Amino acid sequence: MFDSSHPIHLAAVVLTRNVAGHITDCIATLGFADRVVVSDSFSDDNTVTLAQAAGAEVIQRTFDNFAGQRNAAMEAVAADWIFFVDADERIPPELAAEVRQVIAERPEVGWWVPRHNYIAGQRVRHGGFYPDYQLRLLRRDKARYDPARPVHEVVLLDGPSGQLRNVMIHYNYDDWAQFYAKQARYARIESDILRKRGVKPWPHKFIRQPLREFWRRYVTLQGYKDGWLGLKLAVLLAHYYGFMPHWYLLRKRAT
Length: 255
Hints:
By secondary structure, the protein is of the alpha/beta class. It folds into 2 domains: 8-173, Alpha-Beta Complex (Spore Coat Polysaccharide Biosynthesis Protein SpsA, Chain A); 176-254, no CATH class. The protein has 7 helices and 13 strands. α1 (20-28) runs parallel beside α2 and α6 (205-220) packs antiparallel against α7. The termini are far apart.
């Protein structure tokens, strides 16, 4: 039985909500951690049962936003280090060994992890999808997530950070329908953030913002090197990141 009064050195924490298709394979790659904890938002599939069968501890909390979920997990899980892993991510042995090495030998209090991203079975190499560094390995007493950024979370780190060399694998979207649904949800969340900041849906933003995002993805971040896939992603992300948040904002102002 785990005694919370004696912190474990490294805990891998997985946030979940109805991810039965991924959770077993994810946990199978986390054996390098001293403790594996699934922070579940009351899944109504068999995510919890599968997580427990795979050897993880499960805690549950009603979802408010991603930053809130991660902060709550850091409060609840006693460990010197927290390594946040999403259910659709996998940790190869090379990365696992590097994680154990840096927390034992290095002074940094946070580590950025590069990712290989797969969309509908295809690895995306450009357009911002690689190296796609994520600040996920955190000294628990030196990090918190900014509550002002409920999605695409930002870590407030009290100390220096470093970059790991080895990559984790991210199976972003199983198919394009999942991609469209998630981007639409992100666009609505972003529109709420813009509204709270007092941003107005000026007409020029419906042109400039999508064009800026397309140019960033396709040209600046060299999405063109991914061929047709890179072009498709640049167009879609220009739509969902550049156009749709302002469209949702306009609709809310009209109601």
